[in-house]
């Protein structure tokens, strides 16, 4: 059975926009991790991860995002998140991850803010 997730990416300038749709949980974490590793291997260094279409995120999902951030930072890259769901924003606030990730309301805003 396929994980309940879809991931696509596109390039906008020197940013790689990674759009995740579905659930970010223990079942989909391996897919997301591999996807990000492959983008880094392809030479991408600046990422906006768009989570606006994510219906659910658990602690494993948060962990894969932290892991991706560490990998990106290890190659002197950037990783920003786009989150509009109030519950997801609250999760990042409660876990303290809002202080770890730059979080924006739109891809445009994330790309334009240094």
UniProtKB/TrEMBL annotation:
One example of the protein's molecular function in GO is: anti-sigma factor antagonist activity
- List UniProt keywords, sorted A-Z: Phosphoprotein
InterPro entries the UniProt entry points to? Anti-sigma_ant (IPR003658), STAS_dom (IPR002645), STAS_dom_sf (IPR036513)
Asked whether the UniProt record includes Transcription regulation among its keywords, one would answer no
Keyword match Phosphoprotein: yes
**CDD domains per UniProt:** STAS_anti-anti-sigma_factors
**Domain called STAS: residue spans:** 5-114
Tell me which NCBIfam families the record gives: ant_ant_sig
Query: What functional role does this protein have?
Result: Positive regulator of sigma-B activity. Non-phosphorylated RsbV binds to RsbW, preventing its association with sigma-B. When phosphorylated, releases RsbW, which is then free to complex with and inactivate sigma-B.
Protein family membership: Belongs to the anti-sigma-factor antagonist family.
Protein name in UniProt = Anti-sigma factor antagonist
């Amino acid at each position: 059975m396929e994980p309940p997730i879809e991931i696509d990416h596109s390039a906008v300038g020197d940013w790689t926009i990674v759009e995740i749709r579905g659930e970010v949980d223990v079942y989909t974490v391996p897919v997301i991790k591999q996807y990000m590793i492959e983008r880094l291997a392809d030479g991408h260094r600046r990422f906006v991860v768009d989570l606006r279409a994510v219906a659910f995120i658990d602690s494993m999902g948060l962990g894969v995002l932290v892991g991706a951030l560490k990998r990106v930072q290890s190659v002197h890259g950037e990783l920003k998140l786009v989150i509009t769901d109030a519950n997801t924003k609250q999760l990042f606030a409660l876990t303290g991850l809002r202080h770890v990730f730059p979080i924006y309301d739109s891809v445009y805003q994330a790309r334009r803010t240094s």
